[in-house]
Amino acid sequence: MSSSELEPPEPDRSVQPRQDDHRRNAGDLLARLTSSSERMSRTERASALASLTGALAGSARTAGTAAVVTGRWLVDTLLDLAPRLPLRDADTLRAHHPGRTREEIADALVSAAAKATSAVGALGGAATATEFAVARRRTLFAVPVQIAAETLVVAAIEVKLIAELQELYGVYVPGGPAERGTAYVQAWSRRRGVDVLDPGAFSTVVGDAAKRHLRRRLLGRAGRNMSTLGPYLTGAVAGGVVNYRETQKLGGQVRDDLRRIAGS
Q: Which of these, 125, 119, 155, 156, lies nearest to 143 by C-alpha position?
């Protein structure tokens, strides 16, 4: 047996660059959808969501079927993209809402986020229904990725909402973008604010238990987004209503929590 036969095969060095490209593209698109969703037309939003679906499809293929089916890919993708979200600090928020009180600005933030997730849900519902009607042979792959894209955009909008509410209520989260992004994602998973004075509630490291909880939360949200699999109009309406109510509810819970934390 020759020495060459004993050597392990060379690793496929093209996999990581492809994954990095997918993540970079997805991160740019997610930042655009979360930062300017209110100002985007329906056509622009549809184009960005379709591009994000394409980028996520490439990422899902690279991650593998097991990671996608178990939800591990959704968790890793959200944690990877969270630090790239464009977040406004308290001064910027007040400058964007001159003359308003803190509670009035918070009302505006929650309302804007709910409208944004509603628009994504309605758009996702219409697009998903079209996949069923037009291309049944693509449905097995296209529809799950479409749902994943919608779920990630909605989660990102809500993570951004939590981060900006933290700033508004003066409950500042220390660390760089990666540490803060991780803390905000975990807060989204728990539907709570980040209490930086509570060691048990504030963590920038995602352990196995936290990842399992986050995976259940993401898969649960994706399951609710499956309501968009109805006929074209009912799917669009259901997607919008489900997301609007969920974001409003989350905003109320986080605000109650942050008032308590800020008061203490």
A: 125
104 domain-assigned? yes
Which domain range does residue 169 map to? 14-263
Which runs of consecutive H residues, i.e. helices, occur in the chain? 3-6, 15-35, 42-63, 65-70, 72-81, 90-96, 102-134, 136-168, 177-190, 208-225, 232-263
Indicate the pTM of the whole model.
0.82
In a domain, 48, yes or no: yes
Average pLDDT of each block of 10 consecutive residues along the chain (264 residues)? 47 52 76 74 82 84 80 90 92 96 97 90 55 41 71 93 96 91 94 83 77 90 64 53 91 96 84
Torsion, Cα 50 56 60 63, to 10 degrees, reads 170
Total domain count for the chain? 1
In a domain, 6, yes or no: no
* Per-residue pLDDT at 62: 83
Residue 243 lies in a domain: yes
| Angstrom distance (rounded) from CA 6 to CA 80 | 37
